[in-house]
């Protein structure tokens, strides 16, 4: 008679941590992560399909989609609950992002558009306008709390598509 020993089996129950908001703008991302353990295997998935090469405990999401990760330990697998990453564009009026309500209109335009936002805290906001090749066309810091409105003139730039990015600056006092 053969006696088999039963070893302890860990049941992996993890949830996804996020480095910031999952409502991202064009050319931005959010880092997703789960607990790290050298004995675990990881496979990140987007929209129910495996992401090739995404086999560590962290993944940087640059596109909209529904993300989860399958964690394998001791031959058993468990998949986390999903996290939805949304791509926020200026085509969505009165968009809420990182404690800021903003709108850019008209879109498309003929060389002038209005940027409006309400900043609900004192954190400065960096404004960037990129062309389709990623060249920075406008870069400035806006230090305001409350309502802000500006007509932005791009009439001297070639016709085409441009990407507007607002980035909240986080100031820390040491």
Total helices: the number is 0
Write down how many β-strands occur, each being a DSSP E stretch of 2 or more residues.
16
- The CATH topology of the largest domain is Immunoglobulin-like
CATH architecture of the largest domain: Sandwich
Helix content: under 10%
Write the layout of secondary structure elements.
Blueprint: E1 17-18, E2 23-25, E3 30-33, E4 41-46, E5 49-50, E6 58-61, E7 65-73, E8 76-79, E9 83-88, E10 95-97, E11 100-105, E12 112-119, E13 125-131, E14 136-142, E15 146-153, E16 162-168
Can you give a write-up of this model?
This protein is mostly beta strands and 174 residues long. Helix content is 0%, strand content 49%. It contains no helices and 16 strands. It has strands spanning 17-18, 23-25, 30-33, 41-46, 49-50, 58-61, 65-73, 76-79, 83-88, 95-97, 100-105, 112-119, 125-131, 136-142, 146-153, 162-168. The strands form 4 sheets. Strands 2, 4, 5, 7, 8 and 9 form a 6-stranded mixed beta sheet that branches. The chain has a 4-stranded antiparallel beta sheet with strand order 10-11-12-15, with no helix packed on it. β10 (95-97) and β11 form a beta hairpin. It is elongated and about 60 Å long. The model is unreliable at 4-12 (pLDDT under 50).
